[in-house]
Specification:
502 residues; alpha/beta; Rossmann fold; 3 domains; six-stranded parallel beta sheet; six-stranded mixed beta sheet; 21 helices; 15 strands; 14% strand; binds nicotinamide-adenine-dinucleotide; binds L-histidinol; binds zinc ion; Histidinol_DH_CS
């Protein structure tokens, strides 16, 4: 694990390199591999999906339909678990649901303004979403809960999930998905789970295949291949964010316990060889103690191989001049998880604006957020916390603006609208308003000079309205106007037409 100090002459260079984790340069080979896979599944559908599933997950079902598991499988798995396991899943699901139900929709309420325009927003759930549940080197039933529960709270009608099956065991049998993951699908109300993973799963959900339905949005975390594929399909579908290899940045002062610092760093390092764990501390002594403690704990960690590569290839300890500088660097790094092992940790939160989630103080280990604190553990990685937010109910809903003008309101804004449209050279837009004003005037039978009305209708580029015999009998002047309009030459200068109504 590298160690450097903000006083070092090459600090900026090393810090910039550390901050660039997961960047385009860092991930070029992964991106190219993901692009080939996505393209192939888009073109060849199920056939390509089955080939990649066999290659990467060792699962070769006889038909693509066998990739899918459904509610009966989920219920069987749930009821087959011991009571303590069912209780843990339910507790986590309940806490996630309780937190996300507290989210507010914060819409602009519909209101009629001074001119008579009623303006507002409405929000609706997405119809069908696809959740990526990782499963390459670890199982993630918690991710089922931290994605599907907010989706259900949001009101999504159809929640489908995908997760790679475990690699075949010594018996050569593939296709197994652990009971906890299936049970979590039962608890969270997932409709179907497809046993597929990686870039091929993302492509199948984005473009649809004969077996896998195309979704409106793909959400959920995954390794670098999954993250790269989500970037590639964005636009065809929406995505929640880039939630790639896990990260933690711990800010600690001299009072922090090195054992806790090391444990938090390793808890993320064990996710993936590409996970990033960083300590920024104001204490040289703590830096040294934490390094030693990481080595001690690594030696007895079951996922030592993965965590050790992550720590040695991507981990770092940075010694800052003081806590304020450490906190400033943490914010610049924009980590997925930011742990504040500081005296008076909550006080520092107001200095932060760029982290996926902030964990305050020694009794709030990051792991509590991973499982059952409440806020979804799906968080932006690779510095994208600069602009992206945690997965939430809002992730699964979309807003639409709703506008309703009265004729009077339209007439009031028409001159300015006309001016703007003509400035943009988009006369069709201006005409779409002028025609309404002209027809409204005609309907109202406003006592207007014949020529003015003729000019208005002609300038709007519209055909004359055919007056009903009743109206025609009552309003000979308007009928005459329409006849004139039908014959009128192409158009008068628009501004003049608009101005004539002022
Ligand atoms: N940011 C978050 O919110 C969050 C939450 C949970 C987990 N995670 C991350 O999710 C990831 C889980 O990773 P994982 O690998 O265990 O499971 P995964 O399901 O994300 O990836 C496994 C799949 O990757 C593909 N793959 C692997 N090697 C490949 C190769 N060489 N070429 C092409 N495709 C390949 C295969 O299709 C395989 O099925 C970790 O990085 C973890 O840190 C992030
Ligand atoms: N730390 C992960 C997010 O980066 C979430 C998780 C799930 N299970 C354990 N951890
Ligand atoms: Zn974790």
């Amino acid at each position: 694990m590298q160690i450097f100090r903000t006083r070092d002459p090459d600090f900026q260079e090393r810090w910039t390199r550390l901050c660039a984790r997961g960047s385009d340069e860092d991930e070029a080979p992964v991106r190219e591999a993901a692009a080939r896979i996505v393209d192939d599944v888009r073109k060849r559908g199920d056939a390509a999906l089955l080939e990649y599933t066999a290659r990467y997950d060792g699962f070769a079902p006889s038909s693509a339909a066998d990739l899918a598991l459904g509610p009966a499988d989920f219920a069987r798995a749930f009821h087959g678990l011991p009571a303590a396991a069912r209780k843990a899943l339910k507790l986590a699901a309940d806490r996630v649901a309780a937190f996300h139900r507290r989210e507010s929709d914060a819409l602009v309420p519909s209101r009629r303004d001074a001119i008579g325009a009623t303006l507002g927003q409405e929000s609706r759930p997405l119809a069908r979403v696809g959740l990526y549940v990782p499963g390459g080197t670890a199982r993630y039933p918690s991710t089922v809960l931290h994605t599907a529960v907010p989706a259900k709270v949001a009101g999504v009608a159809e929640v489908v999930a995908c997760s790679p099956a475990a690699k075949p065991g010594p018996d050569g049998q593939g296709g197994q998905v652990d009971a906890w993951t299936l049970a979590a699908c039962h608890v969270a109300g997932v409709s179907r789970l497809f046993r597929m993973g990686g870039a091929q799963a993302v492509a199948a959900l984005a473009y649809g295949t004969a077996t896998v339905p195309a979704v409106d949005k793909i959400c959920g975390p995954g390794n670098a291949y999954v993250a790269a594929a989500k970037r590639l399909v964005y636009g065809k579908v929406d995505i929640d964010m880039i939630a790639g290899p896990s990260e933690i940045l711990v800010v600690a002062d001299g009072a922090a316990a090195p054992q806790e610092v090391a444990a938090d760093l390793l808890a993320q390092a064990e996710h993936d060889v590409r996970a990033v764990s960083v300590l920024v501390t104001s204490s040289e002594r703590l830096a040294r103690q934490a390094l030693a403690e990481v080595d001690r704990q690594l030696a007895v960690l079951p996922r030592q191989e993965i965590a050790s590569r992550s720590i040695h290839e991507r981990g770092a300890v940075v010694v800052a001049r003081n806590v304020a500088e450490a906190v400033r660097l943490a914010d610049e790094f924009a980590p997925e998880h930011l742990a504040l092992l500081l005296r008076d940790a909550p006080r520092w939160v107001k200095r932060l604006s760029r982290a996926g989630a902030v964990f305050c103080g020694t009794s709030t280990p990051e792991a509590v957020g991973d499982y059952l604190a409440g806020p979804s553990h799906v968080l932006p990685t690779a510095g994208t916390a600069r602009f992206a937010s945690p997965l939430s109910v809002a992730t699964f809903r979309r807003r639409m603006s709703v506008l309703a003008f009265t004729p009077k309101a339209l007439a009031e804004v028409a001159p300015s609208l006309d001016a703007l449209a003509m400035a943009e050279g988009l006369e069709g837009h201006a005409r779409a308003v002028r025609v309404r004003l002209a027809l409204a005037a005609e309907r109202a039978g406003a006592p207007r000079p014949r020529k003015t009305l003729a000019r208005e209708v002609a300038a709007a580029g519209a055909a004359p309205r055919r007056a009903s015999p009743k109206v025609a009998a009552k309003a000979p002047a308007r009928q005459a106007t329409s006849r004139v309009a039908a014959k009128a030459p192409a158009r008068k200068p628009a501004r003049k037409a608009a101005g004539s109504r002022r």
